[in-house]
Amino acid sequence: MAASPHDDGMAEIVISSLPLETRCPPFLLRQYGGFWIPEPLLPVVAAAQTRFKPRPSDVLLASFPKSGTTWLKALAFATLNRVKHPPRHPGHPLRRCNPHDCVKYLEWDDQGDVLEALPSPRLLATHIPYTLLPARVTAVDGGSGGRIVYICRDPKDALVSMWFFTKKKLADEAYTIEEAFELFCDGRAFYGPQWHHVVGYWEASRRRPEEVLFLRYEDMLRDPAGNVRKLAEFMGCGFSGEEEAAGVVQDIVEICSMDALKNMEGNKSGSQRNFRNETFFRKGVAGDWSNHLTPAMAERLDKIAEEALRGSGFTFAATEST
């Protein structure tokens, strides 16, 4: 990029020169690198590009917002730390802390302090599109930038989940599904367009399968245990025969289930950057969009995504879990 919005004396000038979207509450959005980024996060996104120092052992959990981010954080944290924190233990961190407390965001936390101080292997998360990630993370150089796990979700469900999440934040302010739908179709959503966000990581997973794992939310719902095993293998901590026999995989699935997480004390109170912890948990199912979008709306959104993805080899159509 030509100039970092984080540079001293440049923030106001550079950010104010970017295209502005004011209709996507609760934040103003600015178009940066082809994506609509929440204005408050632009300086940190820019800082990550230039200052973040990846480690070979890093695991970066990436997603478009409201695509299973919280669940993936819980599953990855419980899997990677299962020796230190056995999932059945009553003192497990996920029983008292929100998954967002356990896995820090690349673009939410101070690069020089919080993230740098974490011991290896670091488990981090991001909503940053692949093309805007730090070059040291995406460089094809034998994996010195660590591994990336990406989770995608049907855009219709991502839209509806984002709408509910936003309405909880707005309280009494009016924001209709029709308004959210029109903006989403135009790609004007947090880190949107969603389909461009997805295809960036999809193509990276095809080029770098050893370093980028691409998961589908719907497949994970159908076979959570199988996908936990896949996640563990990719992170370099596959389950032993003894662990399999002891039911550790199922224990992880259970402690990270939507019902379990909803009822954890740490998720009934507290907040993340002014978002109440409870707002990160709703239904966690596939297909709920049909209760909120008309068939015509669904068809229109499907066609927009299909056209945008043409030639990529990727489709949001349902797949069979393997």
TrEMBL record:
User: What are the residue boundaries of the Sulfotransferase domain, all occurrences included?
Assistant: 56-313
Q: Which domain of life is it from?
A: Eukaryota
MF GO annotations: sulfotransferase activity
Which keywords label this protein?
Answer: Transferase
Q: What class of enzyme is it?
A: transferase
Which InterPro entries does the entry link to? P-loop_NTPase (IPR027417), Sulfotransferase_dom (IPR000863)
Q: Which PANTHER family match?
A: SULFOTRANSFERASE SULT
Q: Which family does it belong to?
A: Belongs to the sulfotransferase 1 family.
Q: Tell me what this protein is called.
A: Sulfotransferase
Specify the species: Lolium multiflorum
